[in-house]
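Milestone M4 deliverable, item 7.
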Amino acid sequence: MIDAVRLSLEPFLGWPLIWALAALTIAAWTAYFVLRGRAWLTRAIGLLVVSAALLNPTLVHEEREPLPSVAALILDKSESMQFGERDRAAAAAYDALKAKLAEDPTLEVRTLETSPGDDGTYLYGALEGLMADVPRDRIAGAILVTDGQVHDLPDPEQVEAIIGPLHGVIAGDEDLGDRRIEIVNAPNFGIVGEMATLMVRAEDPQGGTMELAVSLNGGAPERVRVEAGKDTPVPIEIERRGENIIVIEAPPGPEELTLANNRAATSIAGVRDRLRVLLVTGKPNQAGRVWRDLLKSDPSVDLVHFTILRPPFKVDYARPDELALIEFPTEELFEEKLTEFDLIIFDQYERQGVITQGYLANMSRYVAEGGALLIVAGEQFAGPASLARSPLASVLPASPTGVIRTGEFVP
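Output delivered:
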């Protein structure tokens, strides 16, 4: 309990009127004084007494009970706290701090134990939720019992986002060694058949060199010797188009906190230096010429273009030797040489029996393994002969509803 005494002014006429009367009074008294009026001091005292009466001064005696400051105590229970004896040491420190802080009568302690998660240590978000209803001037601070890895700390320049002061109690053995592999830099893509270079850093408290196992797409690992604590270039040959998975692993050291960080992985997209495109046109249309001119205008594009003019069910009244059309090489294109293409374009194509379900299933696997497919279609895409009603449906991003609506397009 705190006793306080203060002088309070509660004017009868309100502050705007008081200030106006004060200005008029001072002006009148000043004029009286300049004109050498008699008893100017007595009149000044009288005016002050009247002014004081109008201000209605009151002596206020208060008894105040201060609100306690609020402190947060948070125990980190993320996955990394399970290594070694961290969880036991952290729990003991948490219990001791909670008991010690509870002895302070001027302090309200709020406690929280975070839930284990696989995606990192996020303590600051938990702290903000714990202190969300506390005014900033009542926050005494926060204590985080953790292993030192917090992934959601705010930017120090954003003062309004900081709940402080912030203290950390670090659990763990600082003398315990642990090997760690980090891929410092990796290209997003590489040319198929050529070398790509990864920058790898291996950390070992004991220093020296170590042998890393580098595997590509689940193949047999290759051995690469690196020096601990230095960025080392590791060349990788891109063997296929699409995603190439690289896994780098270090052998266990004499002292290991965990083996989870002895392995690192990344992916590099394999691309070809020339784009091989297969363009299949169903109904002859004006867009066929546009596609051909567009793709032929780029010298880095190799285009193979077929137009299906005669479906198998069509009845011909001419002899076969009189026809100028060639047979569509379905087996060669969609089985033997399918993987040689980077992009397949179907332009206004409907299922006509030329490309069988088996070949379409091959294309579905081709897309799943990194190939690209582009379907250019109109209202026939919603019809019964649509490619969306074939094995390609498993790799299409959307399926037609079967309903065709004609009207103005509104973006």
